[in-house]
Amino acid sequence: MNPYLYILGTLAFTVYGQIILKWRLSGLQIVLPEAAMDKVWYLVKLLFDPFVFSGFASAFVASLFWMAAMTKFEITQAYPFMSLAPALVFVVGILFLGETFTIGKVMGLALIIVGTIVTVKY
Questions:
Q1: CA 29 from chain center: how many Å?
Q2: What is the pLDDT of residues 52-93, one digit of tens each?
Q3: Whole-structure pTM value
């Protein structure tokens, strides 16, 4: 099996978790209570929402992929690919969540991609 698939799995499950949490919490129009204990109780109840739970489960699966990647790569070789997660969240957020698209965000995205290439290649 190609070891880069472990990194791809880490990225895919990380991005899924972030997007699904944002989508679901936005859809529920969450307003946290003011009191600390009420806030904690409210967040714990949200964990039982199937979509929210899947976001947390996805983070766990991403960790398993990352552990597998760490058996195949040096961390300095693999970790730069993790900087692609915000870039992927940016693109998926625009396409599926209607997030804003600005030239500053595009420039930042380009810098992330160039930085990843430079870090991995050199």
A1: 21
A2: 999 999 999 999 999 999 999 999 889 989 988 988 999 999
A3: 0.85
